Amino acid sequence: MSALRTILYVEDDARVRALVKMVLEVAGHYDVIDCGSARAALALAAYCEPDLLLLDAAMPGLDGLATLGQLRRFPQMAHTPVIFLTGHTASWNVAQYMAAGALGMIAKPVAPPRLVAQLRALWQRPRGPRALERNKAPAQTVSTPARS
Predict the structure, then answer these.
(1) Pairwise CA distance, residues 108 & 22, whole Å
(2) pTM for this structure?
(3) CA angle, 89 then 91 then 97, to 5°
(4) Given 38, 59, 108, 132, which is the most exposed site by the fewest CB atoms within 10 A?
(5) Diameter of the chain by CA atoms?
(6) Which stretch of DSSP H or E encloses residue 14?
């Protein structure tokens, strides 16, 4: 498993995007390339080789799954690991993300103090054909406790 350095992050909500980018850069020491839409990510895709794709699942136009499908057409992103960051956490949603090859998902609302640890936990999960069965455990979802 290679080191995680560069993340291509696609999120249509500017406030969430700014918060997540700041946390990942400051606390995680990652280089984050952020885009406000699938269209922007596709325009950048030919020019970057991120270690990880971090995608919002629900966006206007192309949603996260469709965006992933389009990004996979770029040779350098054909096998780039992906994590979904989303409020859509029903079991059937999670099944869709995993079927698309995701390492897992991080639930919104994002808890800034926990975000880097959540991302690292998913990044460090075993990958490859043998890992698929082990990764089907409920730990695929890294949830954030609801605020009261």
Answers:
(1) 16
(2) 0.86
(3) 70
(4) 132
(5) 44
(6) helix 14-26
